[in-house]
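To whoever picks this up:

The nightly regression suite flagged CD80-like immunoglobulin C2-set domain-containing protein as changed. Nothing in the input moved, so I suspect the structure step. Input below, exactly as stored in the fixture:
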Amino acid sequence: MFCVTVILFKLLLVIEGIQINYIKVPPAVQNNTDQSVILECNYSIRPDDSELVVKWYLNDAVVYQWIPPHKPQALGIMKDRVNLSYVSSDDPKMAYRSMQIINPTTNIAGEYKCFVSTFTDEDFSMKSMIVFVPEKSLELFHSGHTNQKINFTCTATEVYPEPKLTVFKDKKDEFENRNYLQAVEWSTSRLPTGRYSVTITTSILLNKIAAGSLVHCELKIPGTGYVKRKSMLYYPPKSIHYMQRHRKQLCLLLLTCLCFV
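Regenerated output under the current build:
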């Protein structure tokens, strides 16, 4: 019985045709940077396999096709956006297995599938790619206060896809976690371009934040690894008003001190 099992297993290995070993699709690329990206489809086929067809799909639509011995074709949204001369292997059955996209933009983000078939077999593998747009601006500022609390508002404009904003103040030492400020208001608007503008307003008790503390707003675009931070020094509103009201006196005092030095 053991011998029969081994023989059947070996027969299955012999019969097996196409196998996609792996595909490489960048998880995230920046929009409109004049740089190309390569989507690689690495597969194995038997030497006697015939009628090879390699296709790339984007969100279930065929965007690239190679049927040897013909040249590859870019279709649909990828027409005129692929370098059809790109060769990824010296093997004539592997030469045009990969797709080099010129200057990716947000409209070609999504799920990519490499589909390989022959007369006897087929296989496919899928991965997603995000094309992101960094923010046009990121601003952090005081946005009102009471006797007990002060608010900080952070605004990011024209980002894609929708970002995540958090506001926090510096930790006191390396063993503490970040001191996140409580969000009291959040708004998101989708622009005609498809990009997002996001605003978050946070609040903290005045006795929980010291004058001179650093407050940060951190922007993250999920799934991309992109992080941007805006920071500001916090001073209580009364201190700010006092400094503004007595600016001339403070300047004269500073000049006097410098003269004595």
